[in-house]
Design goal:
Two copies of one chain form a homodimer.
Chain A lengths: L4 E3 L8 H16 L7 E4 L1 H9 L6 H18 L12 E7 L9 E5 L3 H11 L2 H18 L5 H15 L9 H19 L7 H15 L3 H9 L8 E7 L10 E6 L11 E6 L3 H5 L6 E2 H7 L1 H18 L3 E8 L2 E9 L4 H13 L5 H7 L2 H8 L2 E2 L1 H6 L2 E4 L1 E4 L2 E7 L2 H9 L4 E5 L7 H6 L2 E4 L7 H9 L2 E4 L4 E4 L4 E4 L2 E4 L3 E5 L4 E4 L4 E2 L5 H13 L3 E5 L3 H9 L5 E5 L1 H4 L5 H9 L3 H26 L4 E4 L13 H11 L3 H11 L11 H6 L1 H22 L6 E4 L5 H22 L6 E6 L2 H5 L1 H4 L5 E4 L1 H9 L7 H9 L16 H15 L4 E4 L7 H10 L3 E4 L4 H14 L2
Parallel strand pairs in A: 14-15, 15-16, 16-17, 24-25, 24-31, 25-26, 26-27, 27-28, 28-29, 29-30, 30-31
Antiparallel strand pairs in A: 1-2, 2-5, 3-4, 3-5, 6-7, 6-9, 7-8, 9-10, 11-23, 12-22, 13-17, 14-21, 18-19, 19-20, 21-22
Helix pairs in contact in A: 4-5, 5-7, 6-7, 11-12, 13-14, 13-20, 14-20, 15-36, 20-36, 21-24, 23-24, 24-28, 28-29, 35-36
Chain lengths: ~850, ~850
């Protein structure tokens, strides 16, 4: 029979799946001799059994739990329910993946009237005992009995008012006893039964409540946001209590071995004297910096620093620790790898490597690719910032700059974001209920809470700018007003946040591109040594191309030509081309565009040098270039002297019911071969001219979009090749070029073997391939995808990360078939998935040669490619 | 070295690929001793060489040709260019597949001034010799030299006018000589060189012209329409001339061994005294029925009847023969299997089987499945017809009834059809240039031409109603007026045609469903013995279901439920459902719909009995049920008392950029589970009630549309199963049911193995599957597909016949994966391809259990399924 309950002394850090992260680390700390209050872990398997058995804990597991309780009683000399020396425990969840703030915790379990008396006698501190029992009833009622917390708060605050005290500490033991009596009456009124007195019953109910909380809404949402499987279950840690709230020689704290903000190698954290741990984490009281602990408790701090050093070396990573000091004795309550900003992750990974603690590969794996984005985020334009009005200062909880309109609830922030409004979420303090709003917000501002408050931890994880604990603001969530001094700010007013400095500015402040640190360059040099995938960028102009090169792009995977068509001085010619009645008229209009296009391509070639550049022929349906409203048509008619009726007729003629599946891509070049001819001529002429002027050997890659079958590709390829060869002959140039295709229509992927007979390269257009393979119009199905994710039908957004089972299957088929026809077929991806780490790993495994993404995501792609190479070695 | 030229005596009917159809049959007739003028065939391989060598005939082939000419000279005793006894030949194309009217023919080749004299002396008929030369120049100039025929006609008609004669025969030899002189002058003026005199040069130019004509526009169009590969090439038949125009003891004719109109077993054909073959085929002169030949040439006719009998038994099929009588001697010029109407094909196949000439399988294969359609076409409502005004009578060239607006050119008929107008094409006579118009027309009416004229032959092949040779109408194509007596009819006026009787009626005459003959039942009984595919129908109401059963449907493969939503008394409830603000309001509206839906399903179950019925849950996007114009919205607002702004807002909210890929199919049921619940309840309740009242064991099949992945299917399946089980429990019913899915999203096909874990059947929705796999919006890409076909990029319309390479590949994958998960998975197709013979054969090969098609196409599907079974044995 398998074991469902483990003492901390029986486990180790490798047993995370069974004991959860917290349990495994408590066991590990116990194992390496650190001061951990004793206890045991009820496993994730027990949680699964609980769900299998419809919310019951079977007698076998119950028996195991109480045999561990007995062990604990023996080791501590305390006893459950003992009036003289009662055993009190904390009950905490501990899932396999850290889920901060998601799961519920109960402290001081084991208290009732008798044990409270015992605790009072033992500690010679009746007020402490009363307060502990009061806290226990409140927590247990909230978490286990599910009675609204506000009702308890009302009793508590009422008492304070009655007594005319401002702080909790103003209440005496008798006041607390009175409160306890009222709490119990409340429980009875709510549930029709007494608050449970028996510690054994308290324990079993608490364990069940933790199991239950695995499936509470916040937990489900967090798992969805973080792609954590829903069937892992949580473990439960039962640990004998130590008290940080036993007076001024006690306290509790949270600390990191290095700074999670910038990675600096010194202990970083917060400490609260005479408090229990929840006070720190929940951000209810604003704690002191850890440096003050060093002054107040020099010996305890020295011991803590020593343990921190041991833990970091042992885990070979920066640790996030919780601890309690009970009457000058230090206890470790938790350690885990600490969440950190991208900048901190970078510095810590590079430093740990330099310190010889980890190797290059580990350093590279440590930097979460998605998080790297933060380093590339804009900061404020310093000149503009100098002119900006500083409104308030809070804690620099998560770095970066954000500007937007303020909203006071998650729902309103979501609604604003859906309308394309950049939102700043302003809250008294955030809670897991605010997650959806935090996801869409540009930045987060809270009035309360510290650097490890919910808002701060979550914002850092998201790489989102956050100013927390900004005490000088008053937030009236109900009336949607924020007050700073005498100034009032209403919903929709603009603010700017500097998360790196913790400053709030009035109005909109312009931002600028980030600069990249030396550590960044060091880590990226390791990344480039390791990765095998090439990284290209999607860029349509020399500016973006140059930016991408600075970020390490090795070529252009997708140069769209339609953006060039939209520029102001060209659009009249584009429209003339579309409105042409004859091939001759169309050619005339295209002749006007030709020099512009050539110029565009020259500019790009000049920046890119001999790096490969893939240029896609015109792709969008032509109606996109025409106006649509009656007024715009009248206006255009006046501008270009074409009768409005003719314009309207053309617009109507070009209207399509499903333009996504309409007259676009290579279909345009088949109807209007002149377009392909003009573009091919512009591309090859530009390359020849730049080769000549710069002494290069550029090999342009001409890409034909939306190909569904070989005959289509061949038709357009012939137009391109005939044109290009004529130019080469005319110019007597010595130049190579490639003609390839997008694979973005499912049929193209299905017949890739045939298409590869003619196509010299493939580039997967995974945006369209996803639309057609899944039958999801990207413009229309945002809501559906959101609904599917909420209902658990989809794990992630297939437009963000490749649907590997469906779309990926087509890609694999196409790669295999294409390469079997043409072994040296060059394969890439130019959909927006090219910048998504999971998709990049998929592309690596599938054997693509390169991924192409927006300039901004090039570093992420490089890192993700290296991580994919390491993971798939 | 391979042989490029074969004497008729060297070949046989199996050599069709090399000698073409005509050449192989001329060889076969020679082989079995029938009277065939001697000659030889230049092979299709020579044609391919001609194209490979850029339009040149190499010296080796030329040498072979002239060695065969020498052989011919020896056998006939005549000589090319001999003034006394000149050898004259016909040169005709002969492709592998019969292409009537598509290729060009030259008669009397070998004539020049000298041989004309010789011919005159030899036949003692100078007028005949002159006329032969005149015809030769005219034909050769048209076909080989490509000088417009009209210019020659003008000279000829001018002469007739000058001489004041009405008929060609009114011209004397001298007149013809004068014409010949003018013809030659015309050739010289047009080409700057003399008309070729040397018979060898004439022959080589003629052979090349035939090769060239393989790629003339008419031939290309015909091949495209009939899916004939373009690389087969044509053979050329060179045959010594016999003359049907040697006076009244001569003649020429075309005949069938049985009637190609109704299959009656007696010789059917036409004959023209003193004429050359082209006169009959081109419909220039209206010939006499063959019965008159029996009176005029009893012995020759008896001989011809004997030969016809031999040929039919030899080829085991009805033959279409061309013959010439030269001075009472019969010559066979061609035999081939005759084209026939569906009714004739049916009767001939059944009769030949009864006569013991062919077996059942051959009889089944003889009936072209696509053509069967004709038998199912409507005929006129006899009552309405009795009241209709008869305008004119022509030849009953192709049976059936048609009614529509008249158009005088192919272009206008095409334009009208594109606007959804039913068109009748009215022409003086049709030519291959009119094909596109004939394809779209409901019926064809010509003023000239016989039962074997171009219009008649092509119309019968298409199963299209045609009245030909309607001499009492005058057609002024230029002014778009048709005159009958004193009445004028203009473009757009309505006419009705009875192709079975050859009658033209004024205005619109209502039509009725066809009745099916005993032969039809006989043949279909053989079909049902042979086929293994089941045939279901797509039907949404009892009337269609009953019609389909009469046509032999074995179940319903697709019952769409949305059509039921559109009915007048229900649409208000549907709209209330869509406009509901709360689930409760939505349920209320659905409660109103529920009894209607239940009634619909009961009606269908009552008709279908225990035959399987697959009902699809609501599929189309909801905006389809709302009005869209401002006026309609105002109107609806008044009707249902909902503010117009609210309506407009909802319409805007439901608007999608690509509705094809939007909120529809199972996605609707995921957002609005109440819809699935209502429909499931209606289906199962209806089945239970009909089972009870009729004592049946109906097993309804509930189909979930647009499934892309298993989680979607499972979500909706659970709604359905929970509802159905609740009804079953409530009603204490003993009933089975199936829940399955459409496979119509590419991802659904790609993950069919997973989906089959939950789905009990698959039905391929090949309309949508084609749209998404190929990226072709059916509503938008009609033009693109037409253009692709014209440019040779697509062989056929993928919405008519399954794209087997792409879409078919997905189907095969899905069948394989689905069956490997669930070996008894039931597989069908319900896209419109289910009625297309080629697609049905594909479905048979792919292992589907059934195809489902519109009621009207059920017999075609049955026949195609049997043919597929025979071909794939």
């Amino acid at each position: 029979m398998s074991q469902f309950v483990y003492s901390f002394s029986e486990g180790n850090k490798e047993m995370k799946n069974l004991l959860g992260g917290k349990g495994a680390n408590l066991a590990e700390m116990t194992k390496i001799g650190l001061p951990v209050p004793q206890g045991f872990t009820v496993t994730t398997e027990a949680c699964k059994r609980y769900y299998q058995e419809n919310g019951e804990i079977g007698p076998d597991i119950r028996k195991e739990i109480f045999s561990k309780v007995a062990e604990l009683e023996e080791n501590t000399g305390k006893k459950f329910g003992d009036k003289k020396n009662p055993l009190l425990v904390s009950v905490r969840s501990g899932a396999v993946f850290s889920m901060p703030g998601m799961m519920d915790t109960i402290l001081n379990l084991g208290l009732n009237e008798e044990t409270m008396e015992g605790l009072a006698a033992l500690t010679e501190n009746p007020r402490f005992a009363c307060d502990s029992y009061r806290r226990f009833i409140q927590m247990f009622s909230d978490v286990v009995l599910e009675i609204p917390k506000a009702k308890f708060d009302a009793i508590f605050e009422g008492k304070k008012e009655e007594k005319g005290v401002k702080y909790d500490l103003g209440l005496e033991a008798e006041d607390l006893l009175d409160i306890i009596g009222k709490y119990k009456a409340l429980v009875k009124a709510e549930l029709g039964r007494e608050f449970p007195r028996d510690p054994a019953e308290q324990l079993m109910e608490a364990v069940k409540a933790v199991f239950r909380s695995w499936n509470n809404e916040r937990a489900i949402l967090y798992r969805k946001l973080n792609n954590i499987p829903s069937d892992l279950g949580t473990a439960v840690n039962v640990q004998s209590m130590v008290f940080g709230n036993m007076g001024d020689s006690s306290g509790t704290g949270v600390a990191f071995t290095r700074s999670p903000v910038n990675g600096e190698n010194r202990i970083f954290g917060e400490f609260l004297v005479n408090a229990q741990g929840e006070d720190v984490v929940a951000g209810i009281r604003t704690p002191q910096p850890i440096a003050e602990m060093e002054e107040a408790f020099p010996e305890v701090y020295a011991e803590f620093a020593r343990i921190a050093g041991i833990l970091e070396k042992h885990y070979k990573d920066m640790q996030d620790m919780e601890f309690t000091v009970e009457r000058n004795k230090l206890y470790m309550l938790q350690t885990r790898s600490g969440k950190r900003t991208a900048a901190a992750a970078m510095k810590i990974a590079v430093d740990l490597r330099k310190e010889g603690i980890i190797d290059k590969e580990t350093a590279v794996l440590r930097q979460e690719a998605g998080q790297l984005d933060q380093l590339l985020h804009p900061t404020f334009n310093q000149k503009k910032l100098a002119a900006a009005r500083k409104l308030a200062k809070g804690l620099p909880a998560s770095p970066g700059a954000a500007t937007g309109a303020i909203y006071f609830t998650a729902e309103e922030a979501v609604a604003a974001a859906e309308q394309g409004i950049k939102a700043i979420l302003v809250r008294q303090e955030t809670s897991p209920e605010d997650l959806a709003g935090m996801v869409v917000a540009e930045g987060i501002l809270t009035a309360r809470g510290g650097m490890t408050s919910h808002a701060a931890v979550v914002a850092r994880g998201m790489g989102k700018c956050c100013v927390a604990g900004c005490a000088s603001i008053q937030v009236d969530e109900e009336n949607k007003v924020m007050t700073i001094g005498k100034r009032q700010f209403h919903q929709g007013d603009f603010l700017s946040l500097d998360g790196t400095e913790g400053v709030v500015y009035q109005g909109h402040v312009a931002t600028i591109e980030p600069e990249l640190s030396g550590d960044f360059q060091t880590l990226m040099s390791w990344v480039d040594e390791i990765r095998t995938l090439r990284i290209r960028t999607n860029a349509d102009n020399p500016r973006d191309a140059a930016q991408a090169i600075r970020f390490g792009a090795e070529g252009i995977g997708l140069c769209r030509t339609e953006h060039m068509f939209f520029e102001e001085e060209r659009i009249p010619a584009v429209r003339r081309m579309i409105l042409a009645d004859t091939v001759e008229e169309r050619k005339e209009a295209l002749d006007l565009l030709m020099p512009y296009q050539k110029g565009d391509f020259k500019g790009i070639f000049e920046v890119m040098g001999e790096r490969p550049v893939t240029i896609r022929l015109l792709d969008p349906p032509l109606h996109e270039f025409l106006p649509h409203t009656e007024e715009e048509i009248q206006e255009l008619s006046r501008q270009i002297g074409v009768p409005a009726e003719k314009l309207s007729k053309k617009v109507a003629e070009l209207h399509e019911f499903n333009p996504m599946l309409g007259h676009r891509g290579c279909r345009l070049c088949i109807t209007y071969p002149e377009i392909a001819v003009m573009q091919a001529e512009a591309i090859i002429t530009a390359a020849i001219e730049v080769n000549k002027s710069m002494g290069l050997k550029i090999v342009p890659e001409i890409m034909i979009p939306l190909v569904g079958f070989k005959a289509e590709f061949d038709y357009v390829k012939k137009l391109v090749v005939d044109t290009v060869e004529a130019v080469i002959a005319r110019e007597k140039a010595d130049i190579k070029y490639l003609v390839g295709t997008m694979i973005e229509v499912p049929r193209g992927a299905l017949t890739a073997g045939e298409i590869a007979e003619s196509a010299e390269f493939f580039s997967f257009g995974t945006n369209d391939l996803t639309q057609m393979t899944m039958g999801f119009s990207r413009d229309d199905t945002g809501k559906i995808i959101r609904e599917y994710k909420e209902k658990g039908l989809l794990e992630g957004d297939p437009f963000q990360s490749i649907d590997q089972t469906g779309v990926g299957q087509l890609m694999e088929m196409a790669c295999k078939a294409g390469r079997s026809t043409r072994p040296d077929l060059h394969l890439g991806i130019c959909g927006e998935h090219g910048g998504d780490p999971a998709s990049i790993e998929f592309c690596h495994r599938t054997g693509l040669d390169y991924v192409s993404c927006s300039p901004f995501r090039v570093p992420i792609a490089r890192l993700a490619a290296a991580q994919a190479a390491i993971k798939n070695r």
